[in-house]
């Protein structure tokens, strides 16, 4: 099933594009004031990255905007959710995405991302069950071996 907007979760900016946004951010930082728009643009690019470190930095910048600039919270919600999804922080991804869906139930980006988050949660659950099953099997084999030795 192809969902609209899931491309955000799968594509990153070209290194040259990221460099332009980083340069703008660094220039403003050196001047002593980073505008919220510059910070948001840079954070957005970092969240779209394939680098875990860059994604973490992007989420941190978006979290800062979310906390300090209430009028900009709405635009941060989707990318905070996306960043946490890409970092496999599904609880946080769900929390931010739910906040966005409460405000905008018809938002196709949020609906698409919600489907991805649910798939991630399910996949994580299957992996957990497989690990638990594997551990139970190892324990059963070990117990069986112990019981045979005692006879």
Characterization of this structure:
This protein is an all-alpha fold and 151 residues long. The chain has a single domain (7-150), classed as Serine Threonine Protein Phosphatase 5, Tetratricopeptide repeat (Alpha Horseshoe), CATH 1.25.40.10. It has 7 helices and no strands. The protein has helices at 7-10, 15-31, 36-47, 52-68, 73-86, 90-103, 108-150. The longest helix is centred in the C-terminal third of the chain and has 43 residues, at 108-150. The N and C termini lie far apart (57 Å).
Amount of helix:
over 70%
Beta-strand percentage range: under 5%
User: What would you say the CATH architecture is?
Assistant: Alpha Horseshoe
Radius of gyration: 21 Å
**Structural class designation:** mainly alpha
Shape: elongated
- According to DSSP, the number of beta strands is 0
Low-confidence blocks of residues: none
Give the assembly state of these chains.
single chain
Mean pLDDT: 85
CATH fold category name? Serine Threonine Protein Phosphatase 5, Tetratricopeptide repeat
- Top-tier CATH class: Mainly Alpha
CATH superfamily: Tetratricopeptide repeat domain
The main β sheet shows up as:
none
């Amino acid at each position: 099933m192809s969902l609209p907007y899931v491309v955000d979760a799968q594509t990153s900016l070209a290194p040259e594009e990221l460099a332009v946004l980083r340069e703008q951010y660094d220039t403003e930082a050196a001047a002593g004031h980073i505008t919220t728009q510059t910070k948001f643009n840079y954070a957005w690019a970092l969240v779209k990255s394939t680098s875990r470190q860059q994604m973490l930095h992007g989420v941190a910048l978006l979290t800062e905007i979310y906390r300090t600039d209430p009028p900009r919270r709405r635009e941060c919600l989707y990318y905070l959710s996306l960043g946490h999804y890409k970092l496999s922080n599904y609880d946080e991804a769900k929390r931010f995405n739910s906040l966005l869906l409460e405000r905008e139930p018809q938002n196709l980006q949020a609906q698409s991302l919600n489907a991805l988050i649910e798939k991630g949660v399910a996949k994580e659950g299957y992996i957990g069950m497989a690990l638990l099953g594997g551990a139970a099997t190892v324990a059963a084999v070990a117990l069986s071996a112990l019981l045979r030795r005692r006879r």
